[in-house]
Design goal:
Layout: E1 3-6, E2 12-17, H1 21-35, E3 39-44, H2 47-57, E4 61-65, H3 72-80, E5 86-90, H4 96-103, E6 108-111, H5 117-142, H6 152-169, E7 172-180, H7 183-190, H8 192-209, E8 215-220, E9 223-231, H9 234-249, E10 252-254, E11 257-259, E12 263-270, H10 277-293, E13 299-301, H11 304-323, E14 329-338, E15 344-356, E16 360-362, H12 368-374, H13 377-398, E17 403-408, H14 410-413, H15 418-429, E18 436-441, H16 442-447, H17 449-462, E19 465-471, H18 478-482, E20 488-491, H19 493-498, H20 505-518, E21 522-525, H21 531-540, E22 544-545, H22 556-563
Parallel strand pairs: 2-3, 2-4, 4-5, 5-6, 12-13, 15-17, 17-18, 18-19, 19-20, 20-21, 21-22
Antiparallel strand pairs: 1-3, 7-9, 7-12, 8-9, 10-11, 14-15, 14-22, 15-16
Helix pairs in contact: 1-5, 2-3, 7-8, 13-15, 15-17
The protein binds ligand C2E and magnesium ion (2 copies).
Length: 568
Amino acid sequence: MVQEQSGTIPPVRVLLVERDARAAMLIGELLRAAWREGLVLVHAEHLDDASQELLDHGASCVLLGLWGLELEPLEHVRVAAPDVPIVVLSDDPTQEEGLRAISAGAQDYLLRSELGPGALRRAVSFAIERKRSEGELAHRALHDPLTGLPNRALFLDRLGVALDRARRTEAAVAVLFLDVDNFKQVNDSLGHAAGDRLLIVLADRLKEMLRPMDTVARFGGDEFTFLFEELAGEREAVLIAERIGQTVRRPITLNEREVEVTVSIGIALVSEPSVLPDSVIRDADAAMYRAKELGRARFELYDEASRRRAMERLELEGALRHALERSELRVHYQPRVSLNGETGLVGFEALLRWQHPQRGLIAPGEFIEIAEETGMIVAIGEYVLEQALSDVARWRQSRPGMTISVNLSRRQLEDAGLASRLASTIRASGADPGVLCLEITESTVQHDPELAGRMLGALKTIGVSLAIDDFGTGYSSLARLRQLPVDTLKLDRSFVGALGSEPEAAAVLGAVVELGHALGLSVVAEGVETDLQLAQLRELGCDGAQGFLFSGPVPEEEVHALLGYGSR
Ligand code: C2E
Ligand code: MG
Ligand code: MG
């Protein structure tokens, strides 16, 4: 090997692979003439030497002399150094060899008959630049620009390879699906730049805790996926998930605020390597979803039970799509009584039921969420409103004071056209808007307080009254509630349930009632089941109550009997 050096840093390091000594000498001269300085030229006579040199020192570019139409040397160099650009020297005047070399992975070729300093310099520089941009494009196509992690395409590819390998070695493969809890809140409250920053910090931490052979990818939005091969089994997967949870939890400073992040993780262990990558991901995703349902900040394993649950959910979703048109949805009504003065019926809350052809009556807890996620809630909500308004109009003929409460879901509140559509629905029903009270849960308000404030303001101008439902299940401050144009606070039934069993429950309830009154709100207790609870609520100053003690939700036919309901 010959090595020569001259000039400044960083030099271009050219490895000339040429078995003909005279040709090598000539090309060396031309290269030196082309560069004058900044060139390191290394000559290898044989392919094996070339490989060794590439391994030891690398190169900016390989100039590879071909003799005859065999491309095997090219393949040899490419395998030895896949990232190094190659310029092929060919003596095939038809150019066929050169073109074949390019389709086989060379970046450029030169005919020996046309060699000169200019041509060499151009070819080498061009090959280096071309290889660099090829690499950049390939990287960009397979990586997430924000975090630099592999993207979904690369992850699926690696998972496919891992499954192939597992078929041969029977090693266990696990996929973890991670979703950041309440990421939208970070984005909404601290801004998108902070959201991005959070993802970058998480990506760095996750990368750091992995072994080189593991993969973590940004699957989309705030979702990350992990691929682990050769795991000992379920236990190890669980330990990793726990470690991920802890790593993520370390405080992160965003906009000078310390934020603590939790994640929900789904684990899918591949027991049958013949499965497709997509279905492994789907399993892990389903398990993650369950972790969310069970309260977030946790992980869940995918197993037969969750597979079944996922299937049932899909079935329910399909059936719900037809429930409206097949008139399977019913509105039931639960009375609300006033505790101010004489206990008496003042109105009803509309509560949705689904008369399922096979499963019988299904409570909203089982399907409202599906309706929300699929957007069906908009049409369903409209139906409930129309039904409730027309029913209450009839009741008011015998009991003029009756009001009706209807629950609004988060999705409905996010619908910008809600207020104007509601106004026309009320107008069409001929009812006085004051008859209608809309209930929005505390968690809906909390999810996006600004949006909630805006939408509630718009609803208020129609003339309906507004209630915060399930109050006490979230952690919203009463100070914030004061800024909302609401009239009523409906205390979650856990407050009432605690009465009699927890000694401080009455004091807490009393304080909340007092605060509610201080804010000018009327306070209604939900879930009143015993006379004792009723007596305590009255003593604490509650304005209204609802619960099985009076009546559960009943179908419209039974409301008439309740309308005769006087005092208790
Ligand atoms: P919610 O608005 O807080 O309704 C009160 C829930 O408590 C009802 O459950 C009612 O049956 C139940 N309940 C009433 N009194 C008692 C009691 O004394 N003890 C106990 N343990 N429970 C009592 P339901 O009907 O299953 O409704 C559940 C939730 O589904 C509702 O909670 C509401 O958030 C939602 N929902 C119901 N109908 C609709 C609707 O038309 N639209 C929307 N968006 N959500 C609805
Ligand atoms: Mg309600
Ligand atoms: Mg409630």
